[in-house]
Specification:
CATH superfamily: Alpha/Beta hydrolase fold, catalytic domain
Number of helices: 6
Distance between the termini: 24 Å
Largest sheet: 8 strands, mixed
Low-confidence stretches: 1-6
Number of strands: 8
Structural class: alpha/beta
Oligomer: single chain
Mean pLDDT: 89
């Protein structure tokens, strides 16, 4: 049997107290955890995103811990349903991600944590901005159908090896990722999954995303 299917881990809900707000997340730590990947969900989504949870489970099966959390409070989410502005406030989302990154080692009482980011859609831009802000902590970044172009001037400052995954039928986003790839100075790769659209709903597409992400994090979070 594949070793990835033998690793068991329990998930717990955590309350994350940042400098400005309280956020909620789901933390999963396999035994002998190799590192932890923090997820940044996309616009209009949450920590309950079925696609991110699918990828998180794949990472857990390799011995990598995961933290999925809501980038916005319940009140902010309600307001954003009307305005749609906060989901594109990359500076705000990135600061929330930085705050959670700083909180996690204190919560776990573990120094020198090996961390990575997995970002989707606008969450990928937030992940890249946060990675540029914490170059000494973040070991790797993976973007799924992301908008790394929204990270703008932060891209050349990213030190973490970065994997950009895009669906082959997501033509506009492919071009945005290609442009962002040129701005990145760290180790970087762009992988286009043939036949996949933005949400990777096609058969086998999300499985491929999970496999690619797991291999990337296993390579660099160590």
């Amino acid at each position: 049997m594949d070793r990835r299917n033998q690793i068991m881990a329990e998930e717990s809900e955590v309350q994350i107290k940042t400098r400005s707000v309280e956020l909620y997340g789901n933390l999963c730590l396999p035994d002998e955890v190799k590192g932890i990947v923090i997820f940044a969900h996309g616009s209009g989504s949450s920590r309950q995103s079925p696609r991110n949870r699918y990828v998180a489970k794949a990472l857990q099966n390799t011995g990598i811990g995961t933290l999925l959390f809501d980038l916005l409070t319940a009140e902010e989410e309600a307001a954003d349903e009307i305005s749609g502005k906060l989901r594109f406030d990359i500076d705000l989302l990135a600061q929330r991600l930085v705050d959670v990154t700083d909180w996690l080692p204190q919560y776990l009482k573990m120094e020198n944590l090996k961390l990575g980011y997995f970002g989707a859609s606008t969450g990928a831009a937030a992940a890249l901005v946060a990675a540029a802000a914490r170059p000494e902590i973040i070991r790797a970044v993976v973007s799924r159908g992301g908008r790394p172009d929204l990270a703008e001037e932060a891209l050349p400052k990213v030190k973490a090896p970065t994997l950009l995954i895009v669906g082959g039928e997501d033509f506009q986003v492919i071009e945005m990722n290609r442009e962002a790839l040129n701005q990145l100075k760290s180790e970087k790769t762009l992988i286009v999954i043939p036949g996949a659209t933005h949400l990777f709903e096609e058969r086998g597409a999300l499985e491929e995303v999970a496999h690619l992400a797991a291999d990337w994090f296993l390579r660099f979070i160590k």
